[in-house]
Amino acid sequence: MCYAHRMRPAPSPFAGPIPVLTTGPLVLRAFVARDAAAVEAAVSDVGVAEQTLSIPHPYPRGAAVDFIATTQREWSAGTVATWAVVQRGVDAVVGAVMLRFAWPHRRAEVGYWVARTAWGRGFATEAVRVVLDYGFDVLGLHRVEARRWVGNEASGRVLAKVGLRDEGILRGALVRDGIARDVIISGRLRDDPR
Fold first, then answer.
1. ω into residue 193 within 30 of 0, thus cis?
2. Residue 82 and residue 75 in contact, taking contact as beta carbons nearer than 8 Å
3. 51-61: per-residue pLDDT in tens?
4. Domain interval for residue 114
5. What is the CATH number of the domain that holds 117?
6. Count of domains in the chain?
């Protein structure tokens, strides 16, 4: 006898709101409309924007509102998960962490930024660590990778602390401000030591 018609598919983790993740002094939660001013202020800083692969500088006025709306649509579609990084008890955005999924390969790319006012406090490392744990343990990812500009040593230290190993340099892989730049790719597999 076939019972397949009675079986319901497992609920998708993307069916509801983005989960709240907590770690040490941080809470990672969905971006909400009231975060727009903090996002715009943080990523308008050239020191923050120039270390990312895609945040434009100057950052367009009002673009944070569109960014926040996009994060909600991408989560519902299961293509990208983006968390606002906030200090516990303060609820002020100090950064963001995202996973961009390639489901056929059970792979995601992690990206993040931290406001200059929060640099040097371990927030990036702590936020990326909890997101990787969620990706591997809850979402069942096999691999997480990251890309960073050659010369971005601070990001390299964060990635090393969370277990990503440098795997190579992609020469002239991405164009930023009209210039083809080299990118370091790092990766970690689910079974790698944590």
1. no
2. yes
3. 898 898 899 99
4. 4-189
5. 3.40.630.30
6. 1
